[in-house]
Write a structure and sequence with these properties.
Rossmann fold; 421 residues; alpha/beta; 6-stranded parallel β-sheet; Nucleotidyltransferase, domain 5; 8-stranded mixed β-sheet; globular
Length: 421
């Protein structure tokens, strides 16, 4: 929307002046028909003027912009988004997320060489007002977990793509598009197997499904996502595993739309570990929740303590609901630049990624591989896909703490004196 005349004066302000003249006439009973028109005009002015500062800056620089739908939960998707923005010196970014507590959309506007701006609004129509004066190049769906009325959101993005004639890209950071249980977990913390054909009872009873999504029907869910996928340009996945899960849920999906593009982890150096010791030290890295394997770690801890095994566990990170013991050390939160130093200081021999869900990538797995250490994972998702190709990889076929300890210890004893360690 062009809100300036040839002199650079906001047209709406000029029009408002003439409208005030009409307003004075409204005081006369002969011109009462102006009243409703005046109120509507003021409302329009207030809506547009909210974005006037942003529109003014965008008019100056003429850079194209990218609109990103995201959440504010952190994690790998957040890390990925930060990398995109930090490495792009050309585009402006409009990043939107839904604040469930405030029941409002929050949009962060990042314009090169301009102060960060934030806006809140209740309806997506206000986003359309902002976009009317934006030279948009692409719409990216980075995350939709937390948004309400998902079907409306999907249709809005398709309509926006058509209206603005821009590229629409979808990044698969989780399996929300497959199921509202976006880690594909059921109540027993086991991988649900994608439910193909869908189990119509699952969502209502599944404790991993956010309350606002429990009323959805899985068949309707997939029908709506299937229509959405037909309208978008690219689907970017970070592993072949994700591609397989997606095409299992959506057999009609056009494979030419799917781009397999693993994340790049270039910030980790090789670890120098002194293996001249007898006792095995198993390391874990990251923030370990239940789906990331906290129960497995605590059970390993219990077994080692009760059997007085000569095995040490070291978590470089945080363990939800876990406490230290003679067998388990927890370093706490760390900076990524300190990760390898902490691994070396604690003489970690093998890294175990105990995630019990099929991850779409797993930065922790790639970081462990880049350190050059043996890496153990369960036979699930993207971590298993990469570890199977790694010459120091350990695939654990049973999601069980005691079995995992045995498998990792056997590997350690076998290769302890090997030149391939």
């Amino acid at each position: 929307m062009n809100i300036k005349n040839n002199n650079g004066i906001p047209v709406i302000l000029k029009d408002l002046r003439s409208f005030f003249i009409k307003f004075f006439y409204m005081l006369s009973s002969e011109f009462t028909h102006y009243k409703d028109e005046f109120i509507l005009y003021i409302e329009k002015y207030v809506e547009l003027n909210k974005f006037y500062k942003i529109h003014k800056e965008l008019d100056k620089i003429h850079n194209k912009s990218i609109l990103i739908f995201h959440h504010n939960f952190g994690g790998g998707a957040d890390k990925f988004l930060k990398e995109i923005v930090d490495n792009d010196k050309i585009h402006n970014y409009l990043i939107i997320h839904y604040n469930g507590n405030r029941k409002k959309y929050v949009i962060t506007v990042l314009i090169k060489n301009f102060d960060l701006q934030k806006y809140e609004f209740k309806e997506l129509d206000e986003l359309s007002l902002l976009l009317k004066n934006v030279l948009l190049e692409e719409i990216i769906i980075n995350e939709l977990v937390s948004y309400t009325d998902i079907y409306t959101i999907l249709q809005y993005m398709v309509n926006l793509k058509k209206e603005l004639d821009v590229k629409l890209t979808f990044f698969v950071h989780d399996y929300f598009s497959v199921c509202p249980s976006y880690n594909l977990m059921y109540n027993d913390y086991n991988f649900c197997g994608i439910c193909s054909p869908p189990d119509l009872r699952c969502l209502k009873d599944n404790k991993h499904v956010i309350k606002k999504y429990k009323s959805y029907d899985i068949q309707t869910w997939r029908n709506n996502w299937n229509l959405f996928f037909k309208s978008i340009d690219d689907i970017v996945v970070f592993s072949e595993s994700s591609k397989n899960i997606l095409t299992t849920a959506y057999p009609e999906l056009n494979n030419r739309k799917i781009i397999v593009k693993p994340h790049t982890v270039s910030y980790i150096r090789k670890a120098a570990i002194d293996n001249n010791h007898i006792n095995l030290t198993i390391g874990f890295i990251g923030h370990i929740s239940k789906i990331k394997g906290s129960t497995i770690i605590m059970e390993m801890q219990r077994i080692i303590d009760s059997k007085k095994m000569n095995i040490k566990l070291v978590l470089v990170g945080i363990l939800e609901k876990g406490i230290e013991s003679d067998s388990l050390k927890i370093t706490g939160k760390y900076k990524i630049g300190d990760l390898v130093d902490l691994v070396e200081e604690n003489c970690i021999d093998i890294i175990f990624i105990p995630s019990v869900c099929p991850e779409t990538f797993s930065y922790a797995t790639e970081e462990a591989i880049q350190m050059g250490l043996p890496v153990a994972v369960f036979n699930l998702g993207a971590p298993a896909e990469r570890v199977k190709r790694y010459n120091k990889g350990i695939i654990i076929d049973q999601i069980d703490a005691e079995y995992s300890l045995k498998k990792i210890n056997n590997y350690y004893l076998k290769y302890l004196n090997s030149s391939t360690w």
